[in-house]
Amino acid sequence: MSTRAKRRGPGSGNGLHRRWTQEETTILCREWHLVSMRQLRKLLPGRTIRAIHTRAEKLGILNAQTQGLLSLDALARRFGVASATMRRILERHGARLVRRHPSGTIRESKRKLWRTYADLDEAHAAFARWERGEYADRAAQRLNVWVIALRKRAMEAGVVKRGEYARLMPEQWDEFAKTLPQKCGGIVVKQRNERMRAA
Prior knowledge:
The chain is mainly α. The protein folds into 3 domains: 3-59; 69-131, no CATH class; 133-198. The chain is built from 11 helices and 5 strands, in the order ααααβααββαβααβαα. The chain has a 3-stranded antiparallel β-sheet with strand order 1-3-2. A two-stranded antiparallel ribbon has the order 4-5. α5 (72-79) packs across α6, α6 (83-92) packs across α7 (120-132) and α8 packs across α10. The longest helix is centred in the middle third of the chain and has 13 residues, at 120-132. It is rod-shaped and about 90 Å long. Residues 4-16 and 103-112 have low confidence and may be disordered.
């Protein structure tokens, strides 16, 4: 054993020459397309990135799945939303989307098989921010303002598109509502009608 290996301790070699156990192979096959490389190394202590990639290539899973990423459909099932909703959540909250062919190769004739993937950790963060968000009607009710006026302010700021049922952070709605009049039953409407009659 080399001096460097002795200094590292038993079982802490570079991971290239140690025989893979059945348990390690099972973990690699099960977790390859579910977790990032950093998490994978924690599950396989003593294995380097190079050793893990080499083993994945020998097992035929290197290009069969997108390592560390999940497809939109898988993420949608995990979080209990529709695939289209999952895409909007990821796009709105800045998660990186990767589009590739499941085989790992680019083939124009099989474009219909291409899938969109996203990192699971980024998806968790995006979904957590989305859950904190509010729709315009709920925000208007909380802030006691007119929902139409609130949506108009959001559209003027370019945050919401016309006809889009957007879900924004409470702080964003609070900012848009700062200059809006409070809704107090029919008082605001009555005052507006009186001003119109006086003019």
